[in-house]
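Subject: Sanity check before I submit

Could someone independently write out the structure tokens for this chain? I want to compare against mine line by line before I put it in a report. The sequence has 134 residues.
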Amino acid sequence: MSGLVIKLGPKERILINGAVIENGEKRSKIAIKTPNANVLRLKDAIHPDEVQTPVARVCYVAQLILSGDASHDEGTRQLLCGIEQLSQVFEDSDSRRLLAIATDSVLSGNFYQALRKLRDLMPREARMLSDKLQ
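---
Independent answer below. Compare away.
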């Protein structure tokens, strides 16, 4: 299979180009053949009330693009600006690698990949924030 391949659990929902699709009773794989299709696993979606940290805000912008609620042009600008701001805080090599992949993904129009890499920063951000509170 070429293109984006998504493995879905039973009853798992995804959003593809604005349409919510629910898997059946069994695990399955779905191949998205259309380049740059907007795909979002609903289990990965961030509720607007949960957007309370810098990484969550940048992730939410990517999510808005994937859901069709933000334009690619404006969303790309906001994502790149947000990633640049995050790069001023995350100084370790692994975080910088994730930010570089996210940047490349945004520039190539792969917002799902950018979202996935940015989400990987959330536990690190939580540790950083808890360290500051102590």
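---
OP: Matches mine. For the report I'm noting this point. The radius of gyration is 15 Å.
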